[in-house]
Design a protein that fits this description.
Layout (H helix, E strand, L loop, with lengths): L2 H8 L9 H12 L1 H9 L10 E6 L2 E6 L2 E2 L1 H11 L6 E7 L4 E5 H17 L7 E5 L4 H13 L2 E4 L6 H11 L3 E5 L1 E4 L2 E4 L1 H9 L6 E5 L14 E3 H6 L10 E2 L3 E7 L7 E6 L1 H15 L6 E4 L6 H13 L3 E6 L9 H9 L3 E4 L1 H10 L1 H5 L8 E5 L5 H11 L6 E4 L35 E4 L12 E5 L9 E2 L3 H9 L18 E9 L5 E6 L3 E4 L2 E4 H9 L4 E11 L3 E10 L7 H14 L8 E4 L13 H9 L15 H16 L4
Bound molecules: adenosine-5'-monophosphate-propyl ester.
Adenosine-5'-monophosphate-propyl ester (PRX) binds next to helix 11, strand 20, strand 24 and strand 25.
Amino acid sequence: MSETSSIAAGIQAGEKYYGLKLREFWRLSLENPEAFWSEIADNIVWFEKWDKVLEWNPPFARWFVGGVLNASYNALDANLKKGLKNKVAIFWEGEEGATRSLTYYQLWKEVNKFANVLKKLGVKRGDRVTIYLPMIPELIIAMHACARIGAIHSVVFSGFSAMALADRINDAEAKVLVTADGMYRRGKVISLKSTADEAVNQAKSIEKIIVVKRAGMADVPMTNGRDYWWDELMKEAEPYCEPEPMQSTDPLFILYTSGTTGKPKGVVHSTGGYLVWAWASLKWAFDLQPDDIWWCTADLGWITGHSYIGYGPFLHGLTQIMYDGAPDYPAPDRWWEIIERYGVTAFYTAPTAIRMFMKLGDEWVRKHDLSTLRILGSVGEPINPEAWKWFHGVVGGGRCPVIDTYWQTETGGFVITPAAGIELVPLKPGSATFPLPGIHVEIVNDNGEPAKPFERGYLIILAPWPGMFMTLWRDPERYKEIYWSRFKPNEKLDFKIKPPAIYFTGDYAMKDDEGYIWMLGRVDDVIKVAGHRIGTAELESAFIGHPAVAEAAAVGKPHPIKGEAIVSFIVLKSGYEPSEDLKKDLVAWIRKTIGPVATPDELYFVSTLPKTRSGKIMRRVLKAVVAGGTLGDISTLEDATSVEEAKKAVEMLRKAMEEGGS
Ligand code: PRX
């Protein structure tokens, strides 16, 4: 392909705005990935250089094949060598007011010691370690200690229940669990160790539990020979641990996420490709400088925390804030006070939080001098223009670009986002703008052909990129089926990296007449509640685990702050009667089986659910019912032969909702 035609054909963005530099980056990354990525990958430290930049056997990609490196070495040792020994790596603050700071040297020392602790407890290269901790530095220390010895970490969000934790431990067959006595939330202490114990009772692979004293709880049950206090192990630990030389394609971590089945998926990320992507994507999107103070408010239990707290900022030798607590506790200006006190310059958060603060009133923000801020970011769900404008105007004082980053657990890092570090395009509130270099996206219709401007279509990715996940843990078949089988290559699509294969994101999107991309929500049965990804199937199977429930359906309903809220419909087994108590019991059951993030906002008892003849719940119908919209023509629904029955069921749902459910 000639240079001019490739620029013209290749660029997916509006000619007018996708500037020359960005365009050039994008073109090079896809037309000459070897040269492009070789140069970018040189920004991290390799013990041995790779033989091949990309080995692409669709849908499996291996990046920097033959390259040898260590993630903890890159995040820590490399910075000590650059003279950043005494630079603060983490300013930590707990909800209760405690503060800690760790320099790169201090963090490095802790990581080395904990790596030796793990080794001493028998953890070897390739073993899995589950980490179930609140947002304390020990969480980062444990992740990097795993990386240092080549163990694979699996961080489980500390808000998850014992059952959810047990499922994740069992799937990964983790040997060691790292947890804490308890955690603070809204001034209360919540026990974690007892939840961990409950999980471990159903997770036999765990041999040792290491417990951090976070909340100073009395009477923490400790099992002799299995449970150890973090502090005591650290006291005796050797100070230095040689970083394990890892292959670029060795897994760095597993992170479980929700999808369309009841079982969470273990997304597996590589070491080399992931780190290169974490390095490059952070630089390109946020243009961070050595004296920036970065604050990403995500939890390390999610991918945002992994890439943009756990790894990315350290790869750039940055100072970051880590806060363990509720955003609005004890007062709605907690975050703004932190920004002012530390002089945060780059602030990355979620639309749900932005909408919540917007509702709480500008005065809480205006009480503080936020003039150090120079760039803002948003992630996790579509940001509505109103929230975008408030964030830009009130928090950013009208002077900070808002970097809306669209991406997923699976993508490892940002994929569609303004690239302030390359060339900032004019922003449009609510649009994530254009893909980063190396990301070849398209929006297609049902036939897999490019959609027209303003036509809603499916967002697909046409080429492998370094940050992409390698597979699903021990389930390559599911990986192929879920992500790579929905769309087949066709001649209307311009594949730059061959052989062609199509990754389906599961998201709706559209381009406007200038090529800007607008994300329009999930196609599948994933609900995004306050940015947390929850599968309806996961909820439904949790409900069905309750002795009273015969059938269950869960759908998302638009919510002004959380983006979406969970609405569930329950058909009871015979012998059970609807009641307020049973409703409460079912809500408590979900909190117990999945965790408080999955708490349904509304729950209705019904006698039947609208289904297709093959027994599938008609989700579109349910969604339309809860949103109060029109049902549309349900006779056109796939496999929907039982229209009359479905109509009846819908009437019943509506009635149940009107009556409040019992
Ligand atoms: O639907 C998209 C939405 O979040 C999904 C990925 O969720 P998760 O794997 O939990 O990762 C969240 C953090 C990266 C996507 O498929 N999503 C994420 N960011 C955005 C978004 N939707 C619109 N705009 C975004 N900026």
